[in-house]
Amino acid sequence: MKKIHTLIIFLFISLISYGQSKVNFVITPNCTYTSKDTDKSFYVFDYKGHSKQELFNKAVSVFTKIFAKKDDQINKTDNSILSVNTNYILHSSAYLNWSKEYIYFNEYIKYNIEFEFKDGKIKVNAPTLIQIRDNDGIEHPLGYFILSGDNEAVLANDAIEQFSFVNKVINKILTNIDTTMVDW
């Protein structure tokens, strides 16, 4: 019975320590992401006891499951860098026009996520915005949806919230890596 309690406590501690992998990138007025918690443009997570190759292979497996669409481009470099240029991500919004009719507007965002690997560590670099398109497929400057009107130094009110979707994607990747590490 004592062994079972010890095993349960060990598994619980492992899950908690792995479950702490979390990024919090925010969009800036120059249309780049930075860490909200530090002044760096990356996060580093410890995976003590796991080799670079093991971490890379687990991440490749997770990337392949999450980004399985044909338009997603997964790139591998020397078993030390893994990145993906994702297909457009849809954000929908609506606004009232001058005749008080709702106009529905979609924006499609293409971005890049990059992970680097060392023995016992995963580094998550800040995402990079590649392209923004509207309903009609017209490409807009990156600041078009991020900046507030004519003031090119101020974020639009909803830009921080709207562009935080990358945190959910990256945290999902980390959670899946954590889960596969614990499962084995």
What does this structure look like?
The structure is a single chain. The chain has one domain (2-183): Alpha-D-Glucose-1,6-Bisphosphate, Chain A, domain 4 (2-Layer Sandwich), CATH 3.30.530.80. 30% of the residues lie in helices and 37% in strands. It has four helices and eleven strands. Strands 3, 4, 5, 6, 7, 8 and 9 form a seven-stranded antiparallel β-sheet that branches. Strands 1-2 form a two-stranded antiparallel ribbon. Strands 10-11 form a two-stranded antiparallel ribbon. A hairpin with a 5-residue loop joins strand 8 and strand 9 (139-140). Helix 1 (2-18) runs antiparallel to helix 4 (165-183). It is elongated. It starts with a helix and ends with a helix. The model is unreliable at 5-19 (pLDDT under 50). Residues 44-125 form the DUF4468 domain. Pfam families: DUF4468. InterPro entries: DUF4468 (IPR027823). This is DUF4468 domain-containing protein.
